[in-house]
Design brief:
Structural class: alpha+beta
Strand content: 15-25%
Strand order of the largest sheet: 1-4-5-8
Number of helices: 11
Number of strands: 10
Shape: globular
């Protein structure tokens, strides 16, 4: 079925993204995976190519384009290329809305030009060693000291944690406030007391730097408060729908690409004197996967269109996130099996997709949390 989501402008942009990947990412990706981090030069190249800050107003150096379909193109092409290590989606679609939607005019002029040029790499720090992403369990605290906040605590599993020049930190500013006693503080590279721990060794997405962050009496200026004091809960809830949709977009794109390369493999690979594609079980596996991908694609595209019109709610974003990522996980396992022993070799894209994609059902809210959100909306 022909997709009706994109216009000619989006397809032209797709070619720009593909050219960028072929020139600036794929030739270096194996080296980045060994190093555990992407070269800063790639971020600067992405900025020059106009891939960063697409939704940022032009006056701050951005593209001034609020059409989320451009983000969908980036998510699809980076996923198809097998290059999740350069977390452009995190930068643009997850951190970006906090800066464009909550920052003061002074903050925008201070942070957004570098955000768009690639000189300033960003991260958001919510998860903690003892509480995961449970907002009520956050212990990182910031005490009001008049002209600054005194920040203490630790975060873990922070994507872009090593490269980040600007980190949006979720900290407790009212001890008795529970999940509603939190604020967003922007910590910048070089602030005394801000330290990075290990670049964590993951089973997949090896090129993506994921780190522990430590804050020991960090003096965060009052002008680095993002949004309202004690308003982090509302701010986070407002932006989570887009974050989960972004993950869903990568999930269905990964499943479709796995189906594509596996279909080609079973046509070429022979067993018992004939192509694997002639075996009934293989045909059934491909048929089931193709159907699941087609149905999921229809729903995710509808969610993208709804989000573009400002109508996507938390429930449908949760549906898209859990369904698309569970499909991605299931498809990766099924396609690896159809590749046989070759599927276990890291030189084959299906092997890397298997490990790179496993995190999808976990970050941005686990599948179980997504189901709880959906169930609560229907039953409470």
């Amino acid at each position: 079925m022909r997709r009706e989501l994109f216009d000619e402008e989006h397809e032209a942009f797709r070619e720009v993204v593909r050219t960028f990947l072929a020139k600036e990412v794929l030739p270096h990706y194996e080296r980045w995976e060994k190093a555990g981090v992407v070269d800063r030069g790639a971020w600067l190249a992405a900025g020059r190519q106009g891939l960063l800050g697409i939704a940022v107003p032009a006056e701050y150096g951005g593209g001034g384009e609020t059409d989320f379909r451009y983000s969908a193109v980036i998510a699809e092409e980076f996923t198809r290329a097998g290059a999740p290590g350069m977390a452009v989606g995190l930068h643009n679609d997850i951190v970006g809305p906090y800066l464009t939607g909550l920052a003061t005019e002074e903050q925008k002029r201070r942070w957004l030009p570098g955000f768009c040029s690639g000189e300033t790499v960003t991260a958001i720090a919510m998860t903690e060693p003892g509480s995961g992403s449970d907002l009520q369990g956050i212990r990182t605290s910031a005490v009001d000291r008049g002209d600054h906040w005194l920040l203490n605590g630790a975060k873990t599993f922070i994507s872009n944690g090593i490269l980040a020049d600007l980190v949006v930190v979720v900290a407790r500013t009212t001890p008795e406030g529970g999940a509603r006693g939190l604020s967003l503080l922007v910590v910048e590279r070089g602030m005394p007391g801000f330290e990075r721990g290990r670049n964590l060794d993951k089973i997949g997405q090896k090129a993506q730097d994921t780190a522990e962050l430590f804050f020991d009496d960090v003096k965060v200026p009052k002008e680095n408060l993002l949004g309202e004091p004690n308003g982090a809960f509302v701010h986070l809830m407002h932006n989570l729908a887009q974050e989960r949709l972004a993950i869903a977009m990568a999930g269905i794109a990964a499943a479709e690409h796995l189906l594509e390369i596996t279909t080609a493999h079973v046509k070429q690979r022979e067993a018992f004197g004939r192509p694997l594609s002639k075996l009934q079980n293989v045909r059934f596996e491909i048929a089931e996967t193709a159907t699941e991908c087609a149905v999921t694609r229809t729903f995710v595209d509808r969610c993208i269109a709804e989000h573009n019109n400002g109508g996507l709610d938390a429930v449908h974003a949760s549906m898209a996130k859990w369904w698309a990522t569970e499909l991605q996980k299931r498809t990766a396992d099924r396609c690896l099996q159809l590749h046989g022993g070759y599927g276990y070799m890291t030189e084959y894209p299906v092997a890397r997709a298997f490990t790179d994609g496993r995190i999808q059902t976990i970050y941005g809210g686990t599948t179980e949390i997504m189901k709880e959100i959906i169930g609560r909306s229907l039953l409470d």
